[in-house]
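Intended use. Records like the one below are meant for learning the mapping from a protein sequence to its folded structure. Do not use them to infer anything beyond what is encoded.
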Amino acid sequence: MALNLDRISKTVERYMADSVTVERKTGEAMNPTTMVVTPTWQEIYTGVAFIAPMGDPEGTRLGGEDIERIQYEIAIPKDSERVLPNDRVTVDVSNDDSLVDTVFWVRDEIPTTFQTHRRLRAFRDVSAV
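Structure written out for the chain above:
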């Protein structure tokens, strides 16, 4: 049985209705006027994706605040650059308006035997109050 993974990959990409930007932290920069230090980012990928929740939210405490950590799977084309843990994913366009401008943090990439797309395990934190 011969598999045509490239053809399957293209089919999967056609169903990616969301659009995201993936960025990697490159360092920090200080504004000399305000003395505020902010992170600097390099764009790794911008383009189609699909986003789906994974499992139930985890309750946790972060910085003295109760939060729910919600895990998602974010799928992007397999030919995109490798995404690493702690990369930042921002939703640019989505069929779910509540996801637009949402920031996710990549936990890892989910390995698969027949990779037709990159499957990222990511999370976002939401106030539990």
